[in-house]
Structure formats: structure tokens, C-alpha cells
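Extended Data, panel c. Modelled sequence:
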Amino acid sequence: MTLSFFDQFMSPTFMGVPLVMVALSLPWILYPTPSNRWINNRMLTLQGWFINRFTQQMFLPLNQSGHKWAILMTSLMLFLITLNMLGLLPYTFTPTTQLSLNMGFAVPLWLATVLIGMRNQPTMTLGHLLPEGTPTPLIPFLIVIETFSLLIRPVALGVRLTANLTAGHLLIQLIATAAFVLLPMMPTVAILTTIVLFLLTLLEVAVAMIQAYVFVLLLSLYLQENI
């Protein structure tokens, strides 16, 4: 049976039951649980150091009211990083290659930042739709453009994460297929292709981490505008 390159992005099923919930719950099982001991092991220490450093860097520009989002943003980034990294393993499924899932993350969080701005400072939030000093004939057009740019933000968040991960997985599969086909005919070229595949895999590991960071960073910037 000939498989398409895009079959790897299909949600796996077992006896007709979708396994996407198993893939979504797996990251929380992998992380070690903090204990009440005074001295923790190296894994817990490294995990705590990473969470503290990330929280400090992410919420440094935000005022005190934005720090309430620290737990949510940090948990979301760890969740996305783990999903993206697990998707690079063989015979695994990457839920973040599904646009519906990424939009499910992006739309509610973006809408929450907008609603917070409309509740706390409606004048300033609406003022973002019209830059200061705009000529009078351009006011209707700029309001429409700024409104559209505001509504396109969650779409950009979801599409960016989906497109980067999908493109990386497809490129890895294409180069791996080329190396497998070239091995009996041109071993030297196949070895060089395998080296390129290894370097691309390292790049995809970096992309998986960076895209999760960018997703949360943009959400924090949207939050900063509305508090």
C-alpha cells in the first residue's frame, strides 16, 4: 500500500477510537513530580531552574497584574515544547501539527487578553484601533485595517506553529526517503544525505523549542497591550 507523505499528520486511531487524547496527556506524565524533601534530584532541580528563568524573562516587561498569568503561560510553553519534541521521535504523532488544536490554544487565550483590556481600560484598548495623528480621511480605512489585524492575530499564532512543524516533518521525511532510495545506487551520496538529515533533525529540535517560545511570547505581548 502506497502511503502519502501527509499520512503522518493523520490522527491515529485504535479500534476506531482517536488516540489524540493519549498524545495530549503524555507530556504531563513525563515530568517529575516535586517532592517535600529539602534536597531534590538533578532532574527536579533542572526543571525548577528552567521554569524560574523562563518566568523571569517572560514577565519582566509586564506589570504586577500580568504576573497572574505566569502559571498558565509557563505550563503552556512546557506543554508545547514537550509535544513538539515528542513528535520528532519515530512512530509518534505530533498533535501540534493539527491546525484545529493550535487554534484551540490561540483563540481562547487571545480572546481573554482582549476581554481583559476591554474590561480594565476600554478607552486605551479601542484607541489601538486608531493611531494618534491619523488624517481625518483615513480614519475609516485605518479602523478597518487595525480591526482586521487584531482579528488575524489568533489565526497567525495557530498557522505559524502548524506550518513550521509540518514543513519540518515533511522535509525530514523527504530527505530520509531520498537517503533510503539512494543507498543501494549511490552509497556516497546516501551518506552525505544522511548527514544532512542528522543536521536537519538538530535544526528541527531547535525549531520545536523556538516555536513554543514564540507562541507564548506573542501571547504575553498581546497581554501587555491590554493591562
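The chain has one domain: 11-226. This feature is highlighted in the accompanying rendering.
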